[in-house]
Amino acid sequence: MSPAHTFVIVGGGLAAGKAAEALRKEGHDGPLLVVADERERPYIRPPLSKGYLLGKEERDSIFVHPEDWYTEHDVELLLGTQARAVDPRAKEVELDGGRRLGYDGLLLATGSSPRRLSVPGADLDNVLYLRRVGDSERLKAAFTKGARIVVIGGGWIGLETAAAARTAGAEVTVLEHSELPLLKVLGREAAEVFAALHRDHGVRLLPHAEVERLTGSDGRVDGVRLADGTHLAADAVVVGIGITPNVRLAQEAGLEVRDGIVTDAHLRTSAAGIYAAGDVANAYHPVLDRHLRVEHWANALNQPATAAQSMLGKEAVYDRLPYFYTDQYDLGMEYTGYVAPGGYDRVVFRGDTAAREFVAFWMSGNRVLAGMNVNVWDVIDDIRDLVLSRAGVDDARLRDPGVPLDALVG
Q1: Alpha-helix residue ranges (DSSP H) falling in 331-379
Q2: pLDDT tens figures, 68-118
Q3: Does residue 119 belong to any structural domain of this protein?
Q4: Do 105 and 247 fall into the same domain?
Q5: Residue 318 falls inside a structural domain
Q6: C-alpha–C-alpha distance, residues 324 and 112, integer Å
Q7: Alpha-carbon distances, residue 60 vs 32, 48, 71, 79, 132 (angstroms)
Q8: Is the pTM of this model over 0.90?
């Protein structure tokens, strides 16, 4: 490829940073620009709800690359800069201020934004979200001994922030819309493990909670009123009710958008020369034979290599199984595979769920669709192989810790 080719990456997270790295590694030696609306250079988001939030990791550890990496690799960082529009015909990105960047290849790694709470009082001070590094720092400041913290939402972000708040000595209540946290994601049996974990650490879980309004005085939140009349006092409210992919640029440019920016397995969008990766990409997955948008770190880490190869005209598909992990108190977990809502028959457990040391398998017939290891380590590759093998597996052998997982792969 001619060195005169210009590649532009829009986004400031892990996917953007890794894409710049992959393009240079794959041999692109032409102009390479990263446009990010944040003032920080590209950084990794999981520590914001995990190690960095807990004070276990230093600020420098969150960045994808050291500061001088971008200069050394001749990558131009346009930080604090909004990409206003994309013109696929002219092959240009328009920035706020009117500057236009011509491109030969464009990667949209625009990520996602937290869903906002839409009840009266939602705009009060100390109603906190978690997406950016400043958000994590505000949460850290709010999580103090004896502080009353109400977390709205029992998903991964809600539970991780609840764990961080409890670890800091705060009094924590988690409001969950359904019966159990993570019920939709994990199913009843595994969701109960996480509910018990938080109760054991002194978190108050309120199921079927409907928030009517947030109350406040002097512009600052002081509580949450529920539809049943309950009023919960709060020094801070954390909102974790899901995220929305940042598709505005793609939509306005006429790209196909459906729960994210639609791509093929090569991460090519519907417009020539434009690619997408990370949270925002609803990519065709050749192994799972469906489009899938995955809101987890592993996609942002691994998809950019495929996108970079595609941008350089090389043959590459993204076919890694979805993977995510969580750390809460003394529980560490990894999950790999994919289960469509209602797409499994049962969950088979190997190990001790009461002691929170086990592996769980989501089954359809005699096939393993996904697996989750909790405080059991060095098994994720075996679980991945088991899912990919599509082997018929007997429940009794799956349950038996005496049968090595690698022996179950057909």
Answers
A1: none
A2: 999 999 999 999 999 999 999 999 999 999 999 999 999 999 999 999 999
A3: no
A4: yes
A5: no
A6: 17
A7: 24, 12, 17, 17, 14
A8: yes
